[in-house]
Design brief:
alpha/beta, Rossmann fold, Arc Repressor Mutant, subunit A, five-stranded parallel beta sheet, four-stranded antiparallel beta sheet, 22% strand, elongated
């Protein structure tokens, strides 16, 4: 699991990083709000720890920017601002938790663990052979039978199909697709994912220009509506 830690005080940043790494988390550090936004847009993270008082952009602004494109990644504010009004402001901007300084490291680790566990609960599993609208997909052999006849899926195609079908009726964000299908180190362009969806439409839709099953939600993600 990868955590983006945004904290401008180096000693605090290093102590938190050390303790998170001892719990087997991978930690990427940022010392400013703008650096945090850049890293978040370039990489995948399972959780963010945000200080509020940051140079260039404060933590509230960073959280607001992130929530414009990603509503799923958990965010913990870690700050010396401890009034009720500050906590409410943070939660209104999309934070999932709020921990004030000084804090007990064990409490932070427990909050991190709980948020990651809650956000990574596995969806219901799709059966090995899945059928919809006269189409048939075998996720063991990668064999598929659609409107154009039988063909073999690539591993990535099968993984993306299974992810969308597992989450049927829900919009799956690009970040979730990156994590589940491509992993952390290889980042395809949005066009790459779009091309996968276009292929699914050609093979599984009666009219690929008016899809019933595979939908692109502009600026948000992708959805299987079977």
């Amino acid at each position: 699991m990868r955590i983006l830690l945004v904290e401008d005080e180096e000693n605090i940043r290093e102590v938190i990083t050390l303790n998170l790494e001892m719990e087997n988390y991978e930690v990427i550090q940022a010392a400013s709000g703008r650096e945090a936004i850049r890293l978040f847009n370039e990489q995948h993270f399972d959780l963010l720890i945000l200080d509020v008082m940051l140079p260039e952009m404060d933590g509230f602004q960073v959280c607001e920017q992130i929530r414009l494109t990603n509503m799923d990644v958990p965010v913990i504010f870690l700050t010396a601002k401890d009034t009720a009004a500050d906590r409410i402001a943070g939660l209104k901007r999309g934070a999932d938790d709020y921990l004030t300084k000084p804090f007990v490291l064990e409490e932070l680790l427990l909050r991190v663990q709980n948020l990651i566990r809650r956000s990574s609960k596995a969806p219901a599993n799709t059966p090995e052979v899945f059928e919809f609208g006269g189409n048939r997909i075998n996720f063991i052999t990668y064999e598929a039978d659609g409107v154009l006849g039988k063909f073999l899926l690539t591993k990535k195609e099968a993984m993306l199909l299974k992810l969308l079908i597992d989450r049927r009726g829900e919009v799956v964000s690009r970040q979730q697709i990156l994590q589940s299908v491509w992993g952390y180190d290889v980042f395809p362009s949005t066009r790459t994912i779009d091309n996968f969806i276009l292929k699914f439409r050609r093979h599984f839709e009666q009219d690929s220009r008016n899809p019933v099953y595979f939908h692109s939600i502009r600026g948000v993600g992708y959805k299987f509506a079977g």
